[in-house]
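Holo model, cobalt (II) ion. Inputs:
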Amino acid sequence: MLNQLITFLDSSPSCYHGVDNLAKRLAAEGYTALAEPDHWDLQPGGKYYLTRNQSAILAFRIPARQPDRFILAASHSDRPCFKVKENPELETEYIRLAVERYGSMLMSTWLDRPLSIAGRVLVETAEGITARLVNLDRDLCMIPNLAIHMNRKANDGYAYNPAVDLIPLTGSLATKGSFSRLVAEAAGCRPEEILGHDLFLYNREKARVWGADNEYLSAQALDDLQCAWATMEGFLQAKPGPAVPVCCVFDNEEVGSGTMQGADSTFLSGALARICAGTGMDYRRAVAGSFLVSADNAHALHPNHPEYADATHRPAINGGIVLKFNANQRYTTDGVSAAIFRKACRMAGVPTQTYCNRADLPGGSTLGNISTAQVSIPTVDVGLPQLAMHSCYETAGTKDAGYLVRAMATLYAMDLPQVN
Ligand code: CO
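Output:
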């Protein structure tokens, strides 16, 4: 199972590739692709998925017997990285690429390592416009550090300026024009046929398992591809249950979710309404009885900085699924949703742990409360424990994704307990 996760991580250098890999997995399992502009003819026992903008995906099954509710999981496909600007070639004594920050990354991690470019291009064809996924898949760029001799304060906490310090080098002046030629080659078209692009830098380092007992997994975008993969795998492994199982992966969590393919959109609510219309469920009654797991990675106790963890909330790598709590509801978990999720984990034999910010640290947020504003369902915020969140090479455990697979497979098949 760990090898499948590693293959997924290594073949998902952009949100588009991640969603494409999930779609291919669903198609291979016999799921029918639906399109939002089409009429949907949903059948009892049917298995379906749909995508939006190629960067968000939602899969569901219609039970053979009349359902009356949903059990859902939500995660995100995007990661903090650098987006390549339009007309990116900057010409000085070198050719560099103009890029823009996407999300809040740990900037220093992008320096001094081979980088490449992946995403999608929009190609003009005889039939119209085709979106093609591209991965230049070669060591193409580097963001070189300034030598210590020129920046004696580099080790005293340096403030990187993204407009100066973080511009990737791609070649000598003689390589001018290479960017559009290489992208066109990867897309199988001529440069002048490219009408648009959404291209991102990615780290060329493959996922690695390491540690004295091979207990750690490092890779890019563990936040949140680890949860996207594990919730989808749990969805696929779940036995039939009374509810409609739904697995959703949104885009743009790292920039606030407020896009048409983000959690703050109609993607989920629209699909749920159409599933209700196609199965005879009452939308409001179905939603009222449903349950959502918002799965986005959590901070493990840091080996060098234990002081940032709360006194009684110190998530351990390979210690199990982390339930996230916040009194101000930046995480949606409350007593009720925690109880339901813990019951599923007990049934699955999966360990759980808890996360809470230190009372004097604000902490982050995730897509649970944003999704809940669109579709108001009891929600639990969970994640897998990891280190170095938003580095371009993050570290987690080799066991925790398997725990989430088992927990979700159990939860999806459950007759949800009534809380009286
Ligand atoms: Co995340």
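The first helix runs from residue 2 to 10. The CA atoms of residues 141 and 170 lie 5 Å apart.
Archived with the compound record.
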